[in-house]
Design goal:
The structure is a homodimer. By secondary structure, chain A is α+β, with helices and mostly antiparallel strands. The first copy, chain A, has a single domain, classed as Hotdog Thioesterase (Thiol Ester Dehydrase, Chain A, Roll), CATH 3.10.129.10. The first copy, chain A, is 34% helix and 34% strand. A 6-stranded antiparallel beta sheet of chain A has the order 1-2-4-5-6-3. The first copy, chain A, starts with 5 loop residues before the first helix and ends with a strand. At the A-B interface, helix 2, helix 3 and strand 3 of A face helix 2, helix 3 and strand 3 of B.
Chain lengths: 154, 154
């Protein structure tokens, strides 16, 4: 396990806990490092009529993993923005009977610099992000590609 | 308002209430008729860090509206199936500060007949469905196109 950003995890957890539907999922920030974030939520709160993970809960945790990765990267860079999802593509590859987990990579330095230049020039900018959900054995069960829009708060 | 299928609404509501993450959204079957279904959920349970509707909750209610439309149509036709979401495309067009509502049309007779022929031949079949979310003034705020897979239970 790489070095964890404990202060960043606590900050993001507080941000997520302030959203009632996210608290209802039982969602927690499982890991936050320099380059990746992982969220988790118990199956007991997130199963469907078939006893496996509810698609809407997978959509939520994947949407939030990619959102959180971008939010953290922009916060670390000193940006104060509102971050919206603009669109997403979700693939559900296999039923999941384990804890829900979703992982996303933070944008790299060059991608972040390009986005920050847009924010500086126009007060807003967009970025496409990915997130993946795997079962306990490591098999990919769902993935998201989504476009996010950042808008400076000022 | 067209004729409502009250028994069908109660059956679907019970099915939805059996899923903990759906109950957490406060989701209710607002209307079910011969051709359309509408689901609703209070903003108070579904707002995000910006005070508008959480994208994950919109994903859930849209996914369930299209799922519910197909579930009801297959149930009315006497099919006993498990119904899974396979993939979806979500567009978030505007922030929503009202109650969440999502509407979907039931598949028409010909589409349903084609799907039932696949179920009869192979025990499974798929269908692409749409759902829309509008604000209180009727403006489109989000939409989903998703592929669903039906698998006969027996």
């Amino acid at each position: 396990m790489p070095h964890a950003d404990t202060a960043g995890m606590l900050r993001l957890q507080a941000l997520l806990d302030a959203m009632p539907p996210v608290r209802a999922l039982g969602l927690r920030v499982d890991h936050l490092g320099a380059e990746r974030i992982r969220l988790a939520a118990p199956l007991a709160r997130n199963f469907n009529d078939k006893g496996c993970a509810f698609g809407g809960s997978l959509a939520s945790i994947l949407t939030l993993a990619a959102w959180g990765a971008l939010e953290v990267a922009l916060h670390r860079a000193g940006e104060d923005v509102d971050l919206y999802i603009a669109d997403s593509r979700l693939e559900y590859l296999a039923p999941l009977y384990d804890e829900l987990q979703a992982e996303a990579g933070l944008p790299d330095a060059e991608t972040l610099a390009t986005l920050r230049a847009k924010l500086a020039a126009r007060g807003r900018g967009g970025l496409t992000m990915q997130a993946e959900a795997r079962d306990a054995s490591g098999r990919l069960v769902a993935r998201l590609e989504g476009r996010y829009a950042a808008v400076r708060r000022d």
